[in-house]
Amino acid sequence: MRLITHNMLKCHVKNCSDPDKQFPLRFKGTAGAEEVKLEQIEAERNDEFLVRMLPRLEWGALAITAGELNIPLPDKVPSDPAADDGFLQALHTAILEMHVLEGTMFCNGCGHEYKITKGIPNMLLGEHEI
């Protein structure tokens, strides 16, 4: 799972204790629990795509997640991101080349866990959670 995908996921448990904490899902292992297995898979860089995606990304959540996973990413978006090659490269690496292969995400609101196996997050809920 790429971080661009993670940036669009939130908890959908019906009785989540705090809806304001359903996003972003946090990774277990970033606080010393279960390890998160990351792999960098090279991908062709498309600057036009990156600039178009910026308004769709929740930057604060992406920066927090990247920091927890030790993926270098600036705290802020520059005033002219299209002209900042270093920023575009860091963004490209973070959202398109870094893959979470194994691990667990959890909701800060209700604590529900979502396993990631072979790069695929299991976002299905049990009947009692829908």
Automatic annotation (TrEMBL):
GO terms for molecular function: protein heterodimerization activity. GO terms for biological process: rRNA (guanine-N7)-methylation; tRNA methylation. InterPro entries: Trm112, Trm112-like. Pfam families: Trm112p. It comes from the Eukaryota. Gene3D superfamilies: 2.20.25.10. Belongs to the TRM112 family. PANTHER family: MULTIFUNCTIONAL METHYLTRANSFERASE SUBUNIT TRM112-LIKE PROTEIN, UPF0315 PROTEIN-RELATED. This is Trm112p-domain-containing protein. It comes from Coemansia javaensis.
